């Protein structure tokens, strides 16, 4: 039993580390994932790595090549637009439900997360700055939709968020290290909170859609610069 638990823990660790590296672009779209290199990088055996890769295939971040191993899933402008359009519309719908169903505690949590996001935090390096801001930004948006009261819809939201992660990371790197871009996001967040607290559903949902679609032109340009637009979306 102990060995089985240990193997499961190693597979979970392998999944977390490999997923992080794929999202952050350590492994590029369409790059072949060689088992020898993965073993050396993560210090894991073939068993846990295969389990981790199988889970990433299910999450559409990795593609299994028949009898030939694994590759990082491709990225494309078509997939970018589809994922972000789906996210923006779903998030707006969830926000509408949250405004209808949310209580005072829901409003208080949004204010708390918004305050935390705007606070200046002392960080040691650029990577930590990106991680801290991203975590607080996620918490802010999660607090907003939590009032919808639908675990099923929130599960769909999580799936779409995971699909967007590689594209989001391109945008995060561009945004978090630009004071001008961060200031623009602060204004968007403030306007969103104002509309939510006023229970102005139409305005809040419109602002949410615009807010979530805002990164698309930036990501598009970054992908074109890197030549990623040539990659086909996963089958």
UniProtKB/TrEMBL annotation:
Domain of life: Bacteria
SUPFAM superfamilies in alphabetical order: GntR ligand-binding domain-like (SSF48008), Winged helix' DNA-binding domain (SSF46785)
Protein name as catalogued: GntR family transcriptional regulator, carbon starvation induced regulator
Organism: Geopseudomonas sagittaria
PANTHER family assigned to the protein according to its UniProt record, in alphabetical order: HTH-TYPE TRANSCRIPTIONAL REPRESSOR GLAR (PTHR43537:SF20), TRANSCRIPTIONAL REGULATOR, GNTR FAMILY (PTHR43537)
Keyword terms: DNA-binding, Transcription, Transcription regulation
Short name of one Pfam family: FCD
GO molecular function: DNA binding; DNA-binding transcription factor activity
Residue span, HTH gntR-type domain: 8-75
UniProt key word Ribonucleoprotein: no
């Amino acid at each position: 039993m102990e060995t089985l638990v240990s193997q499961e823990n190693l597979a979970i660790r392998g999944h977390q580390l490999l997923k992080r590296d794929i999202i952050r672009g350590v492994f590029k779209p369409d790059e072949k994932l060689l088992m020898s290199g993965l073993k050396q990088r993560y210090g894991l055996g073939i068993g846990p790595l295969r389990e981790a890769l199988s889970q990433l295939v299910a999450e559409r971040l990795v593609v299994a090549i028949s009898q030939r191993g694994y590759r990082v899933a491709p990225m494309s402008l078509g997939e970018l637009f589809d994922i972000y359009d789906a996210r923006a519309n779903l998030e707006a719908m969830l926000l509408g439900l949250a405004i209808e169903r949310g209580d005072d505690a829901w409003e208080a949590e949004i204010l708390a997360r918004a305050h935390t996001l705007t606070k200046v935090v002392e960080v040691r390096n650029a990577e930590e700055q990106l991680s801290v801001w991203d975590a607080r930004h996620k918490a802010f948006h999660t607090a907003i939709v939590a009032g919808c009261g639908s675990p099923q819809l929130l599960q769909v939201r999580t799936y779409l968020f995971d699909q967007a992660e590689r594209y989001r990371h391109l945008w995060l790197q561009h945004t978090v290290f630009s004071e001008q871009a961060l200031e623009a996001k602060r204004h968007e967040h403030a306007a969103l909170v104002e509309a939510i607290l006023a229970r102005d559903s139409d305005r809040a949902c419109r602002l949410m859609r615009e807010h979530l679609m805002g990164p698309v032109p930036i990501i598009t340009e970054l992908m074109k610069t890197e030549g990623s637009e040539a990659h086909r979306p996963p089958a």
